[in-house]
Amino acid sequence: MLYFFTLIVSFAAGFVSTQASNPLQKYTISAPGINATFIAYGARLTNLYVNDKSGNPQDVVLGYDDPADYIRNDETVHTYFGPIVGRYANRIKNGTFTVQGVTSHIPENDNMGHDTLHGGKVGYDQRNWTVVSANSTSVTFSLLDQAFEGFPGNVITFATYTVSAGPRWTSRLVSIPLDEPTPIMLANHVYWNLGAFVDAAGSTVLNNTLQMPYAARYIEIDNIEVPTGAIGTTKGTFLDFASPKQIGRDIESAVNNCGYNCTGYDNAFILDRPRYSSPESTELSQLTLSSNSTGIQLDIYTNQQSLQIYTCDNTNGTIPVKRSQQHADNTTFVEKYGCIVIETQQWIDGVNHPEWGQEQYQIYTVDSEPAVVFAQYDFSVLGP
After folding, report:
1. Radius of gyration over alpha carbons of the chain, in Å?
2. What is the arithmetic mean of pLDDT over 199-216?
3. d(C-alpha 273, C-alpha 264), whole Å
C-alpha cells in the first residue's frame, strides 16, 4: 500500500508541476448545442451555454467573468459558485464524526462555529486541482487530499467533465482512499438560472417549474440547518414537488425552512426510486427544471440518493451577473431567489446518523469500492 501511495503522490506531483501552474486558466469544451468552461481552481464550472427556444445560446450558470474574482469571493462572502465541494459536502454537526472507533474533528466554518460546511475552512472548492487531460469535449482534474482539514487519511479524486450531443453535460467524480477509513461525499455546487436573466421573469427562479417525482421524503433540520435525525414526508406540504410546480407557488410558506428567520428552500430531499429500480439507478430523471423565459429545460440523472435544493434565499442584489447574462441597459444583479443550487449527493450528515443505514454510501476504505458521484445534465427546449 505504501508503494501504491507513493506512485499516486508522484503521479499527482508531476502534473502539478507541469499543468497546474495557472489554476485560473480557462478550459472550454463543446459539442452540438452546448459549450462549457472550467478552471482548475475548485475544478469549477464557470460558464455553460445551451440554446434557448429561439436558438440563441444562453449562459445558464452563475459566476464571474474574471476567474480571479472567485478567489476574492472565497475570501469574503464565499458563495461557492460552481466548484466541487468536499471532502464532505453539506453540513457535519459540531464538525465531529467517528469512523471505526476513531473520532475526527473538522474546523467548524458555519453558523458561528456550530457545524462544518462543505469540508471546512479550506475545502475542495478552494484547492488548485491538477489538469490531467483536456480535449475538445472533455476535461479531467485531479486532487490529492493529504488529510486536508483534519479528515482521516489521504484521498485522491478525479473529476471528469464531458459534453456531448443532446445537448448533455456529464460529471463523474471518483474518489479513492489511499490508507485510512474516511467519509467521502462530494457534490457539484452549481448555481443555475435557466431563465438566464433575459427578462424580468428570468431574473429569479420563482417562475421556474420544478418536479422531483421520487422525492417523497426529506431530512428534517434544526434552525441552523443541521439534521435532527428525523425524516419527514413531503406529500401535501410546501416541499411537495412530486408533480410539476412553480418554485414560487408555495415559497412564502417555507418560513424558517432554510434556517432561522429565513424563507425559502434549502432542503435535502431523499430520492426513493421506484420498486423495480435499484437505489443507485441512473436510468430515470430525478429532477426536471424549466424556464418559460428561455424555454430551456434541464433533466438530471444521478446515482446519488439525495438532492439538496437551495433557492438562493440569501442573495441580496450585490453581485452582478456575468456579461453574457446582461440583457438590459442597466447592470443586472443577482437578487433574492435569483438562482437555484442542485447538489446531487448522499444524505446530509449521514456520517453522524448510523440509524439511517447510509454507511456503505459514505464511509470508504482502501479495500472498498471507490466513492463515485455520477450526474448527467440533459437539456432540451419546451414545446410550443
Report:
1. 20
2. 97
3. 26
pLDDT tens per residue, range 131-186: 999 999 999 999 999 999 999 999 999 999 999 999 999 999 999 999 999 999 99
* Nine-digit cell string for 376: 448527467
**CA atoms within a 13 Å half-sphere pointing along the CA-CB vector of 23:** 20
Verify whether residue 335 is a known catalytic residue. no
Residue 383: the pLDDT is 84
| Percent of the chain with pLDDT strictly greater than 90 | 92
Q: Is 225 a catalytic residue?
A: no
- Summarize pLDDT for 233-287 with one digit per residue, the tens: 999 999 999 999 999 999 999 999 999 999 999 999 999 999 999 999 999 999 9
- The one catalytic residue among 189, 220, 280, 359: 189
For the chain, the three-class secondary structure string (H helix, E strand, C coil) is CHHHHHHHHHHHHHHHHHHCCCCCCCEEEEECCEEEEEECECCEEEEEEEECCCCCEEECECCCCCCHHHHHHHCCCCCCCCCEECCECCEEECCEEEECCEEEECCCCECCCCEEECCCCCCHHHCECEEEEECCCEEEEEEEEECHHHCCCEEEEEEEEEEECCCEEEEEEEEEECCCCEECECEECCEECCCCCCCCHHHCCCCCEEECCCCCEEEEECCCCCEEEEEEECCCCCCCCCCCEECCCCHHHCECECECCCECCEEEEECCCCCCCCCCCCCCCCEEEECCCCCEEEEEEECCCEEEEECCCCCCCCCECCHHHCCCCCCCECCCCCCEEEEEECCCCHHHCHHHCCHHHHEECCCCCCEEEEEEEEEEECCC
Confidence grade of residue 21 (pLDDT, cut at 50, 70, 90): low
